[in-house]
Amino acid sequence: MKYVTEFRSSALIEEGLRRLRLQLKRPWTLMEVCGGQTHSIMRYGLHELLPPEVELVHGPGCPVCVTPLEQIDRAIQIAEQPRVIFASYGDMLRVPGSRSDLLHVKADGGDVRVVYSSLDALRIAEQNPDRQVVFFAIGFETTAPANAMSVWRARQLGIRNYTLLVSQVRVPPAMCLILSSPNNRVQAFLAAGHACTVMGYREYPKIAADFGVPIIITGFEPVDLIQGILLAIQQLEERRAEVENAYPRAVTFEGNRYAQNLVAEVFEECDWPWRGIGIIPGSGWRLRPEFADYDATLRFPLNAITTSESTECIAGLVLQGWKKPNECPSFGSACTPDHPLGATMVSSEGACAAYYRYRWKGERLKSA
Ligand code: SF4
After folding, report:
1. Is the pLDDT of residue 115 over 60?
2. What pLDDT does 273 receive?
3. If we measure between CA atoms, which residue out of 124, 110, 118 comes closest to residue 78?
4. Residue 275: closest CA among 57, 71, 34
5. Ligand 1 pocket by C-beta < 6 Å: which residues?
6. Whole-prediction pTM value?
7. Bridge pairing between strands 111-114 and 132-139
8. 3-class DSSP state for residue 257?
9. Which atom of ligand 1 is nearest to the CA of 344?
10. Band of residue 368 on the pLDDT scale cut at 50, 70, 90
11. What number does the ligand 1 atom closest to the CA of 343 have?
12. Residue range 319-334, pLDDT digits in tens
């Protein structure tokens, strides 16, 4: 398949690894920001192909994993209310809240529906004018434009029975938080290519300069990832800290201006809590006051939230690159995809789920 097969070529992987070995003189620790990249690395066994001096740690770029516990508890409260249709991406249904999850609400008779986009949820609202439809608007820069579009369109069409429960987050503030920590291990980032497709990478040169770290905009196929790692190692060995775009088939410096303008019209930046990590200044998007009519937290009466997180789950440490999933004492024993203790074991982009799913062997790469 064009644009896929050639980016899984074992010959190109081997050439990238050969060039990497030539460059490499000392150990380095790199973080791939996005959970989709983590799954590719584990699926294709790239971490096992790298020289032992190159360590990959796994970043917080998994929207399900970082959705704060209190927002999941709010989702459950809303979904339990009569005449509510609660629409969500499928992964969110199994994420543990403090006392339950959305799947149990559904099993107990709640109208919880899996959708693939916010515009599907808006359509449900249009078709059910006597019901309140709430969409769980989670995600990074990649989902923000479509979620913004849904309320913009709802207002345009005069649809009043549609609201968002928002948990929108931004990547760059999380990168700054990781780099600011006294426990930081990250010496270079593989930035999330799809987030940059929307937002471009205008914010990254300042981060690279302020913290002295290379940032490589990287895609998701094995060749993309090896190229991103190679460019990062080249910079580290040459004592450079610059931003390079290794995903030019999708990413430009400016990004998608139309999507950015729509997001800016509907959302405004705010401080936001990340599950397991805490509040990161300027890392969230919330609905602007002009769109308050579409805010589920204002439409529905909600009880005070008292959260209760698993004491065994170390997902917050995993998401900051301090620990690997298989260093968690519960990994694969008390915590499995069937009985998850944390969101990183549930999500299709979660690092713990990736380690569990590919713990025996990943896929073998075939020559293109
Ligand atoms: S293995 Fe389970 S308990 Fe451990 S960090 Fe991952 S999600 Fe949390």
Report:
1. yes
2. 96
3. 110
4. 71
5. 312-315, 318, 325, 328, 330-331, 335, 340-342, 344-345, 352
6. 0.93
7. unpaired
8. helix
9. 7
10. very low
11. 7
12. 999 999 999 999 999 9
